[in-house]
Amino acid sequence: MSVLALEIGWGWMLAFKALVILMIVPLGALVLGYTFLLKMMSHMQSRLGPMDPGGFHGWFQLVGDGLKFLQKEDIIPEDADRRVFAFAPVVVVISTFLMFVVIPVGPVAVVANLDVGVFYALAVSSLSVIGVLMAGWSSANKFALMGALRAAGQLIAYELPLLLAVVGVVMQAGTMSLQGIVSAQQNGSIFGWSGIGNPFIFTQIIGFLLFMIAAQAELSQTPFDMPVAESELVAGYMVEYSGFRFLFFFIGEFGTATAFAALAATLFLGGWSLPGVHGLSAELLGPLVLFVKLMGVAFLMFWVRFTYPRLREDQLQAIAWKFLIPIALANIIITAIIKVAF
Amino acid sequence: MSTTEQPSVPTNSGPDFNPGPDFKDIPAFEVDPGLQRHLADARVNVELDTGDMIINLGPQHPATHGTLRLVVRLDGERVIAADPVIGYMHRGYEKLTEFRTYPQVTTLINRIDWLSSFANEVPFVHAAEQLMEIEAPPRAQYIRTALTELSRIATFLLFLGEMGLQVGALTPAFYGFRDREHVLNLIESATGGRFHPNFNRIGGLKDDLPWGWIAETRNVMKIVLDACDVFEDLVLGNEIFQARTRSVGIIPGELGASYGVSGSNLRASGVDWDLRRDGAPYLAYPELDFEVFTHPDGDSFARYWVRLQETRESARMVLQLLDKMPAGPIMAKVARIIKVPAGEAWVETENPLGQMGYYVVSKGGTGPFRVKIRSASFSNVSILPWMLRGVYVPDVVTILASLYFILGDIDR
């Protein structure tokens, strides 16, 4: 299929892919953390943000923060369930790693082009809640426990709209493979005009909005950040974590944000595809195109995060069950009718 | 008594050391079998009782503005009972005033409500002036009024941002701090202290206003009025903020008054009572034209709304004061060493947090004999156990934020 795949041995290819995946999570977390947390938020809130470290606009700040976390003392509470406590951040980060396995960045550049790609990505993303529950339970702290239970309640409420929002895309593309969805968008046409393909954001705008809202809840970002709720639960399930274990949660948070932004870009904005670019140039440009789209989606996510107050737990459940799920079901029905009619 | 007459105390060293009976000689502690059964039952009950969880909000908690501690009994997320524990920051100011001279006391009472220090000084200085039967000259009164209103604006700007932070929005907090900085700069340029001006003297003020202060204040008042518009759009108009604050933490007007709640908290419950207008006339307030805002709802949203309107009104009052500012001296004729004749005086003022009063008892001399401080927050938080029954944990934070207390004002 591709030049690359033929010349490099299977084992080396796998090792290379694993290395890329291992690097992309901390790297994505770093880029998103720097761009949005340090720079965009500072501009929005009219504060300086770190400007000194590293010379140019304080680019070194997050690396320095990471190094600081590494040299902190590793504190485990006396009453904590030590093994569960230590393993919880790893579970959170692993779920992020696993999500990147199916996200394509080019015609062949994907670790595993699963036939059930969307299904796999969404299923794996919710694994992180197990890590959160483990963290909250094992910390032997009431604030942490409440945060973890809130996270679990939130997951049950928001996994459904997240899945239902994607169903419309899957129906329109006729496949659950992410590669298939991308090529369906690339080769599609809007009322016969195939100039830019057919990014599903035009036909599935309701699905896109639902996906973004539910993803915000899945990432526990404002307005759905009750599991960490600084002003109520101090830091929720993370309250007892320090040093590199806390860093793991941080990487997990921003890495998952990267993954969800990439997923949204793939499902609704055409992923790596650029109109009129095919073959080897698509292979080379793909990662860059996906990155630009991903940053656009992430900008929306973080814009909302820095603007809105936090909902209450019961209000969140009400929104999910009374508002999002009925709309998602209606969206599916309308999509099905249109699909059959045309 | 000489040392030889003291009874000998056994020590664990020296020749007289008596280690006492060996551990093996002590019979094992036997529990009555009936009692043991009860203990086992109690253990099982404790293990199976999933109803209540007791959680300590504070003394170190971001929502308690310092060291307020709330012992909260929870059923899931719902509060069954809440018990505020105060006193972690008690500094004994009422007692300390008895060992200070009158000019020294103003330094202390600056620290009661540290966000609006200047407003704290006014009633005490006023009480001393009443006892001495002197009055500060009109220019000093006007400057005092302007600085009091500025400290009210600074306090409320912090509240307007802080309330957003407590319901989960990070951005308003920074806007609040940013715009409050302008006001603090004004206070600093006039008095020399950002937080603790210590600017009042008995009989007047320490200094006159610096050159250019009035023009600068006019500019800053524009910034404040703009900031109020921003808060109205960003926080008050936000649907999520309204969902979080409407009908949360309702104080019925009569109940609030009977608990001693005062200030904006009471006005938000529909009680039209403002000491600047309704109390004994003080400072330049009788000569000012201002409106007192009330809101019929009495919930957290109403408290935010009332404080927002009062911030605007204060800015307008400052502008009025600048227009009317009389010329003249800033100190009355006062002896170098201040001696206050015997007598008693009670002065209460409308401070940013509510009604603040000093009952000063003088027996003649350079310092007060006894000072009773009536601070607003102490009475405002006394209604907390009533308010917090049956609300959710996030609402606890909303209610604490909307009551807007300062720990120094509670504990003194």
TrEMBL record, chain A:
It is a multi-pass membrane protein. The chain crosses the membrane at residues 12-37, 84-105, 117-137, 158-178, 190-214, 246-272, 284-306, 318-338. One of its GO terms (biological process) is aerobic respiration. GO terms for cellular component: membrane. One of its GO terms (molecular function) is NADH dehydrogenase activity. Keywords: Membrane, Transmembrane, Transmembrane helix. Its main location: membrane. It is found in: Membrane. This is Unannotated protein. The lineage of its organism: unclassified sequences, metagenomes, ecological metagenomes.
TrEMBL record, chain B:
Residues 1-25 are annotated as: Disordered. Residues 1-15 have a biased composition (Polar residues). Pfam families: Complex1_49kDa. Keywords: Membrane, NAD, Translocase, Transmembrane, Transmembrane helix, Transport. The keyword Ribosomal protein does not apply. The keyword Cell wall biogenesis/degradation does not apply. Residues 167-412 form the NADH-quinone oxidoreductase subunit D domain. One of its GO terms (molecular function) is NAD binding. The chain crosses the membrane at residues 386-407. Belongs to the complex I 49 kDa subunit family. This is Unannotated protein. It comes from freshwater metagenome. The lineage of its organism: unclassified sequences, metagenomes, ecological metagenomes.
